[in-house]
Amino acid sequence: MSSTVIPLPRDWSPAGGEVAVPPELTVAGDGEALVAARPFVRTLEDCGAVTAVVRAEDGFLRLVTETSDDESHRITVDDDGVELRGGPQGLRWGAQTLRAMLPAACLMPGSGARAVLPRGVLHDAPAHPWRGLLIDVARHWMPVTWLRRVVDIAAFHKLNRIHLHLTDDQGWRMPVAAYPRLTTVGARRRETLVGPAPGDRYDGVPHGGAYTRAELEALVAHAREQGVTIVPEIDLPGHMVAAIAAHPEWGNHPDPVEVMTTWGISSTIINTRPGTLAALRTIVDEVMDVFDSPWIHLGGDEVPTTEWEASPEVARLMEREGIDDVRGVQGWIMDQLLDHVRRAGRTPVVWGEAMDAGVSGDVVVQAWTEPAQVERALARGHRTVASPQQHWYLNWSAAPGDDEPLGFGVGKGLATSVEDAWAYRVPDGLHGVEGALWAEYITTPEEASYHLLPRLAVVAERAWAGNACDWAGFRPRLEEQVRRYEQLGWEHRPLTGPGLRWSRTWTDPGGGPARARRRADIHG
Ligand code: ACM
User: Which of 368, 374, 385, 390 has most ligand 1 atoms within 8 Å of its beta carbon, as the pocket-test mutant?
Assistant: First the structure.
């Protein structure tokens, strides 16, 4: 039997037949290994296949912790039971593989399904160290309960980074003790454009929400337990309208601006004054305090320079620093903050345009505009993360029809089907790959999940297995993966069949979107 697991394991040698997991599950392994294997054990308990878990010297499930700090692991299923070997991270991915090797029915809590595993030996390791998913909580605030779900979805796909886009023109979600106005003012917009941009109809409904420090710390801890790092992004020097609405002294004009209510690129960007840079350092310090990620994303995409071109201050700065082209001002201002991140022992990450604006030193470059930007970053020797928008922006409509939920490209004949996502073949030498879920048009967790799944499975396959598999080999595994989503209760877009069909309705213990509205009221 070939493996049905997504992402494709590097090496799977089936030995024929199956082994039943006993209802009293004996487990051997140290405490840390038990934490790593918890998603597998909990799945068995939740479905009812296992009624008791007992520590034993020589268990049915034997977890062997190796000293390796890579992500490789080895699973052996034979008549003696299951042996899982690896370093702490490898054990986590091995546990996810074991979940996926169970009959799909075992993934449904309370199903009472019989748990069996195929006999054989699996050896696995990823093609890329960075396997990410961007979640945009700036355009629409999302409940933390859903972000925890996203971590679980990422871990099931062996993605190891959630890139949290915390700030943008339409909302600032990151609490900063020194600058409370960032969330009391910057986290709330008066109303939101209805339908695709550009447009002229607004809903008249305030939207807002910010996370508390405690919520973010708990999210980071939950992710760490699953082997996932939350990489925070503060997007600058553009995409800062919400911050400038809260602190007009950081902008280039004395006139107040409001948090943006529509979508697109704003020409309102931050100024280059020492006081603004000092404030940004304080913000980045708080971000580094809350998020233990070795990588800190500082944005750098889509920076119109019209305000700087008209600024005598910027002209003086260019003269003083010997900057010939105003685009170099972006490189200069970002360099100040990238150095700040490096001095704290972290590695900065930037969007592709920052590379083109001439930032210096060691950065991870996330290339998104088109595949050529990926090639350019690689040619310049950067550690490169590929997020080609035409393929892996999962907020693009999955099909051009009117029966899809609002997505990017609606009405323009643009869509990214599963096959379109699959069409991007990763070039050699990548540091990583990342799918992105931008949330201009995504207002609820159900819509987010519908856009995310199953296209995220394609990103995960390329992330872990590179181009190892062809479409004919992937498609049946994808069908099996969708059956797993159904059993897990994860909302997704069906692979076949006409029209929009939510598979489940999101029930949020925290109150979901209603809670977002309540927060908007608080901020109002
Ligand atoms: C981006 O899509 N502006 C990174």
Answer: 368
User: What's the full length of the chain, in residues?
Assistant: 524
Q: Which amino acid appears at position 165 of this protein?
A: H
| Ligand 1 binding pocket includes 302 (Cβ within 6 Å) | yes
d(CA 474, CA 477): 5
User: Is residue 245 classed as helix, strand or coil in its secondary structure?
Assistant: helix
Predicted confidence at residue 411, as pLDDT, reads 67
- Residue with CA closest to ligand 1 atom 1: 301
Q: Name the residue of 167, 266, 353, 438 whose CB sits within 8 Å of the most ligand 1 atoms, as the mutation to test its pocket.
A: 438
Nearest in space to 231 (alpha carbons), one of 295, 289, 282 = 295
Distance 186 CA to ligand 1 centre (A): 20
Residue with CA nearest ligand 1 atom 3 = 301
**Mean pLDDT, all residues of the chain:** 93
pLDDT value at 328 more than 80: yes
DSSP state of 170: T
Of 338, 238, 239, 223, whose CA–CA distance to 291 is shortest?
223
pTM above 0.90, yes or no: yes
Rounded to 5 degrees, what are φ and ψ at 288? -70, -25
Alpha helices in 115-196 (DSSP H): 144-156, 181-184
**Six-digit token string for 271:** 């100024």
Q: At what angle do helices 31-47 and 88-101 cross, to 10 degrees?
A: 10
What letters, b where the CB count within 10 A reaches 16 and e where it falls short, cover 66-80? Answer: eeeeebbbbbbbeee
Whole-angstrom Cα distance, residue 436 to residue 451? Answer: 10
Alpha carbon distance 260, 310 (integer Å): 22
- Of residues 415, 413, 365, 364, the one with CA closest to residue 391: 415
Is 301 a pocket residue for ligand 1 (Cβ < 6 Å)? yes
